[in-house]
Amino acid sequence: MNQIVPPVIAPPIVWTPKRDVATPAWPVPALGVALLRGLQCRCPACGRTDMFRGYLRVIDACSDCGAPLGSARADDAPPYFTIFAVGHIVVPLMFLVERAYQPSMWVHAALWLPLTTALSLAFLRPIKGATVGLMLKLGLMKSDDEMPQDPRNA
Ligand SMILES: [Zn+2]
């Protein structure tokens, strides 16, 4: 005899926000403000201190507001965004010059290699600043135990 088994209906899953997340001790600005401060290479949280020590090394923490800027591991994102931006400037110019003047290859090399290098060096630092600002706004900071050990500090 076959018995008809009624289907088991699971209770609906209801998403609830995680309420035990501590609010950060540093100010968290609006997204546009964090990006603009990062583009200016300033602390995205307070805008009062320099974000970089050197050309691309991000300071460990802001001396004014304490935002842990060094915990934002931007990794390959700033070079990627830089290549994207510089490519969208240089390649159309290259096509325009080729179409208008048909210069020889050495002229192209003499024009575009220095321009590409200069634009990349000029854009990389503010784009890294904006990336760190975005990461700070989105809370994409790694805690100390997730960070790789710096051999210079050992
Ligand atoms: Zn700050």
Can you put this structure into words, describing what you see?
There is one protein chain. This protein starts with 30 loop residues before the first helix and ends in a 16-residue tail after the last helix. Helix 1 packs across helix 3 (105-138) and helix 2 (77-101) packs antiparallel against helix 3 (105-138). The chain has helices spanning 31-39, 77-101, 105-138. The protein has one domain (31-142). Helix content is 44%, strand content 0%. The protein is mainly α and 154 residues long. The chain has 3 helices and no strands. It is flat, with a radius of gyration of 24 Å. Bound molecules: zinc ion. Residues 43, 45-46, 48-49, 62, 64-65, 67 line the site of zinc ion.
Summarize the structure.
By secondary structure, this protein is mainly α. It has helices at residues 31-39, 77-101, 105-138. The protein contains three helices and no strands.
Secondary-structure element series = HHH
Can you summarize the main beta sheet? none
Write down the Rg: 24 Å
List the uncertain runs.
none
Q: What percent of the residues sit in helical stretches (DSSP H or I)?
A: 40-55%
Structural class: mainly alpha
The fraction of residues in strands falls at under 5%
Average pLDDT number: 91
How many structural domains? 1
Q: What is the straight-line distance between the termini?
A: 74 Å
Number of contiguous helices: 3
Number of strands: 0
Q: Which ligands appear in the coordinates?
A: zinc ion
What's the overall geometry?
Answer: flat
